[in-house]
Amino acid sequence: MILLAAVQAAPAALAAPPQLSGQAAAAHVLNRLAYGPAPGDIERVTQMGVARYIDSQLHPESLELPAALSERLAGLDTVQRSSGEVLGDFLAVRDMVKDETEDAKAMRREVLARINNQTAEARIARAVGSPRQLEEVMVDFWFNHFNVFSGKGQVRPLVASYERDAIRPYVFGSFRDMLGATAKHPAMLFYLDNYLSKAGGLNENYARELMELHTLGVDKGYTQKDVTELARMLTGWSFAPRQLVARNETFRFDPKRHDNGDKQWLGRVIKPQGQAEGEYALDVLAVHPATARHISYKLAQYFVADEPPPALVERMAQTWVASKGDIRSVLKTLFASDEFMSPEAQGAKFKTPYQFVISAARAGNSAMAEVRPVLGALDRLGMPLYGCQTPDGYKNTQSAWLNPDALSRRIGYATTLAQGVDAAVVQAALGEAVSERTQGIVAASPQKIRTAMLLGSPDFMQR
């Protein structure tokens, strides 16, 4: 009898965990791989199948940008021009600071506003309107991971190039390539002061964040001596603003500023090799098991839960090590997991202000023609675009963003955005992402406030 009971129980014990399906699955992947559904998206993803949608998002080159979006981006010269050209404009008006004529003041305001607004418009227009939604989500993830603060001096005119040249091309590719691109970009060199670091005048800011934030993580088996030695290995990694403006020379290794002594780093003896010392450090850090676990944890936290399942993180880390840091492979492991498609994962993430604003625009089918109100809303919600001052970037957890004041501000923004937006359009776009209870409350409310109630509902705050 005991044997019979065990045999009868075996199928249930071995059964696969429950998974989301149908429109619920479509809504879930649109809330995680995209900035929420736009009208018709849930039906389209349901028909094509979630697996096929995920695959298409992992290969965005197969998805053509809408003509209107391409034309809009082409008209933003700040994001089309080289970093040197934009920096030249910035430095020219900055050097006019002693000229207090009204014309000089107006020119400074015009140049700075153009740089700020066009950089932001390109990001927001893509996030709202691009069919390559996962690419935009990953740009946001990796920008926060390799954060630079636009409010620090010369970083402001370099942000557009930093996102375009050091982040966007690598979001699905080799982590080592992105690590090198960010390390050598003038925005990062200026933000974390490595352009100042030289033998006899060591600056450890970048070396510390490279290990603590960008790769290994905090307290992962290295010492302060390792940070100092890495900083020595990276001396001479710099840029010269004048050469950047004149020749678009975004990076230079200056052997005269390099510390040519022997180093002891992570248990290794590093002989003098000039720039190759820093390149070697990036090689080691990119594929280190601690890096694999640190970034796998961050990705699982972003896409699954604030406290991601340890078993999932470990599988992702194994993929990282086996693929030598191939980001697309790690994401495939994540999206194919039972944990990602579990009903428990649905609605388990609280939207950041940026995710909330972009998803509201998509649900209401808004093109965000004017960027300044959007930037103002992000400022009021505590998440100014490119405005995180600390190198760890913005958090994506509920504890960072859920508080009464923040909720009231979100509801206020939802009320403003809802003007002229049909509640039926929003409801149809969100589908099963809105609970029956919320649908009932909205339906019983006056017509003029229904859209605001949907966009300000607890259901919509989650993803």
Automatic annotation (TrEMBL):
The keyword Signal applies. Pfam families: DUF1800. This is DUF1800 family protein. It comes from Pseudoduganella aquatica. Residues 1-15 form the signal peptide. The keyword Signal applies. Keywords: Signal.
